[in-house]
Amino acid sequence: MRAWEIISGDGVDALNLAERPTPAPGPGEVRLKISANSINYRDLSTIEDPITRKLPFPTVPNSDGAGVVTAVGPGVSLKEGDRVTSCFFENWTAGEISAAAMASALGGARQGVLAEEVILPERGVIPTPAHLTDAEAATLPCAALTAWHALTQPRPVLAGETVLLLGTGGVSVFAQQFCAMMGARTIVTSSSDEKLARMKALGADETINYRTTPDWDTAVLELTGGTGVDRVVEVGGPGTFDRSVNAVRVGGIIGLIGILTGAAGQASPTAIMRKSVTIRGIYVGPRSMFADMNRAITTHGLKPVIDQSFGFEDARAAYHTMRAANHFGKLVIEV
Ligand SMILES: NC(=O)c1ccc[n+]([C@@H]2O[C@H](COP(=O)([O-])OP(=O)(O)OC[C@H]3O[C@@H](n4cnc5c(N)ncnc54)[C@H](OP(=O)(O)O)[C@@H]3O)[C@@H](O)[C@H]2O)c1
Fold first, then answer.
1. Does ligand 1 have an atom closer than 6 angstroms to the CB of 121?
2. Is 249 in the pocket of ligand 1 (CB under 6 A)?
3. Weakest mean pLDDT among 107-116, 214-223, 238-247, 265-274
4. Under DSSP, is residue 53 helix (H, G, I), strand (E, B) or coil?
5. Is the pLDDT confidence value at 263 over 90?
6. What is the torsion angle, in degrees rounded to the nearest 10, for the CA atoms of residue 94, residue 99, residue 104 and residue 109?
7. pLDDT for position 95
8. Percent of the chain topping pLDDT 90
């Protein structure tokens, strides 16, 4: 069987397609024939900079895969032929995150799923919603669960509340779909009017082009009668954070998720304190939350938005497409 490997710090074009023996599952493990992966910005960052992350070589990239169980080890309840999706963390099944759970991320501390066959513990997979294709299910483990987490913790968004979404990448498009499902109003920013029109089609209430309106936080305040939004799904990081604080209401919530504008920067604590804003760092979510999300996705028949699919041999092109950031929603690699 074939697997893509990170074998150096030389980036996407240095990814290596290797032939490996088909693995056999041990106790508590399943073997999956992977049908599809989706990719996340984090997978791209990992491939571009494995050395800072102290990644061993070779490491198979990607956290998000869906496929079919082809073999089970002793003590496993799943059966051959069951359709399942990978969990981002092998060891975060429920409750609060821990250091041990954090050290079990696929395509990072653990081998990832960009391979024709993978071995995962049974606790590290979850049944695939029946109405989704494997390609659609492969979009769920990271981006969808992170968006769901940001909208349901520390308390769920209420119908009629207003949520600010930044950009139109994988996390934000899922957040829009979930907000529509939950009856929440959204204000969405993007660099592209065409992408904003697509967010409107998914139910966005208000849109702001952050290129033509660089003071988008002021525009958000105007759209909310000066009050600010109830919640922000913050994927921008240092380049957007202070504006998100300005755009959120007194007592509002910011789910701190992403670093699209860079890893380091400065924040202004005074405004956070004065407005009593809850800032919550979010790292994907546990399997139990994934199950809650899948129940909602199934109940509402929600279909993930896939921008483009790439063939397995063409995996490098998927990461280049992500780097170009012209996509809307998710990029998928069919295996
Ligand atoms: N903490 C976690 O658990 C977790 C989980 C998933 C993702 N993340 C992080 O969250 C971020 C988003 O992930 P993703 O998978 O959604 O990425 P993505 O699909 O690559 O998102 C790309 C989009 O982000 C938007 N963007 C870029 N710079 C922006 C800015 N200054 N203001 C507003 N939007 C901007 C652009 O939207 P437009 O083209 O519309 O302008 C771009 O198309 C990444 O930093 C990722 O590492 C974290």
1. no
2. no
3. 265-274
4. coil
5. no
6. 160
7. 97
8. 98
User: Tokens at residue 12, please?
Assistant: 């996407």
- Backbone dihedral region for residue 329 (phi beyond 0: left; psi -120 to 50: alpha; all else: beta): left
Q: What are phi and psi of 119, to 5 degrees?
A: -110, 130
CA-CA-CA-CA torsion sign (311, 313, 319, 321):
negative
- Per residue in 81-93, pLDDT (tens digit) is 999 999 999 999 9
Q: What span, in angstroms and rounded, lies between the C-alpha atoms of 64 and 38? A: 6
Q: Please work out whether the CB of residue 189 comes within 6 Å of at least one atom of ligand 1.
A: yes
The phi, psi pair for 59, rounded to 5°, reads -125, 135
Atom 34 (ligand 1): residue with closest C-alpha? 167
Cα 181 to Cα 3, 176, 203, 225, distances in angstroms: 37, 9, 9, 24
The preferred substitution site among 153, 234, 235 for testing ligand 1, maximizing ligand atoms within 8 Å of CB, is 235
Q: Is 225 helix (H, G, I), strand (E, B) or coil?
A: coil
pLDDT-based confidence at residue 266 (cuts at 50, 70, 90)? confident
Q: What pTM does this model have? A: 0.98
Q: pLDDT value at position 183? A: 98
Delineate the domains of the chain, giving CATH numbers in brackets.
2-141+285-334 (3.90.180.10), 154-281 (3.40.50.720)
DSSP code, position 96:
S
